[in-house]
Specification:
Strand content: under 5%
Largest sheet: none
Structural class: mainly alpha
Shape: globular
Radius of gyration: 18 Å
Order of helices and strands: HHHHHHHHHHHHHH
Oligomer: single chain
Helix content: over 70%
Number of strands: 0
């Protein structure tokens, strides 16, 4: 049962990235059930985090926030000695909260959660988690930045983040960092460089079946085209983004990307 709960958790993460939301949710729920049966508190908490992440990706922000609270409570329900050892693992909880804040337009909260995730990752000397937190930190800073010094500072941080993620072979994190870099290039007034980066990333994400990254990249390409006055191109990318974000259909879409693409198709900026 112990090994089954772990393998189901890992399978759920993989299926989430490829847009198989229904199967991912079923795997996460079963992982929680089995983890409870064998008192595997660590996997139970991690699978609750994953369930929260899936809800948030589906646009069910309030339910996701509640589930995230349940996951945090699960960590804190461990006895004191275990929690002192495991508390740094709350970094994933903080990372999910950061993404939720970004999608709900709360850049200040996103920065706080990103800083917490990075602090916890550093405390545990977990290199992949540190890189993930730095990507979120850059994304949150970019969301809050005005043209000028802070925007330039975001740009300076991205190359080392990309170098580290590539060195460790972190495919998904590399894709996230490249998306942030493309957004930075657009925000800093270089839409053509942003387009080139995003096109390359879209090709790589499609080849690796990173469906959520593909949808996010297609949304960005639509926004770049819209900013250049290329309405037909923008609509083409927006329709592609909706197709990528469709996942398992209504109620099981990658809703933030799908909704943004719908705004563009409805004539929004």
């Amino acid at each position: 049962i112990w090994y089954r709960s772990v393998s189901l958790h890992q399978l759920a993460w993989t299926r989430k990235s490829s847009g198989e939301f229904k199967l991912a949710a079923a795997n996460a729920d079963e992982s929680v059930r089995l983890a409870e049966a064998c008192a595997n508190h660590h996997v139970r908490a991690k699978s609750l985090e994953l369930a929260a992440d899936l809800l948030i990706c589906r646009g069910r922000f309030d339910a996701g926030r509640d589930m995230l609270g349940e996951a945090r409570a699960a960590w804190r329900d461990m006895d004191d000695q275990v929690f002192r050892t495991a508390k740094t693992l709350l970094r994933e909880d903080a990372a999910i909260a950061c993404q939720l804040a970004l999608w709900t337009g709360d850049a200040a909260a996103a920065r706080r959660h990103a800083a917490e995730a990075l602090s916890l990752a550093r405390a545990d000397n977990d290199q992949p988690s540190m890189i993930a937190a730095k990507v979120l930190e850059a994304q949150a800073a970019l969301a809050a930045a005005e043209p000028g010094g802070e925007l330039t500072a975001v740009g300076r941080k991205l190359d080392p983040i990309l170098d580290d993620s590539r060195r460790l072979g972190l495919t998904s994190l590399t894709a996230k960092a490249r998306l942030v870099r493309a957004r930075y290039l657009r925000a800093s007034g270089d839409p053509e460089a942003a387009r080139v980066e995003a096109e390359e990333l879209r090709s790589d994400s499609r080849r690796r079946d990173l469906r959520l990254h593909t949808a996010d990249t297609e949304v960005l390409l639509a926004e770049i085209a819209l900013g250049q006055g290329e309405r037909e191109v923008a609509d083409t990318y927006a329709r592609a983004a909706q197709a990528s974000a469709e996942c398992d259909g209504e109620g099981w879409r990658y809703q933030p990307a799908w909704d943004r693409a719908a705004e563009i198709l409805d004539g929004g900026a």
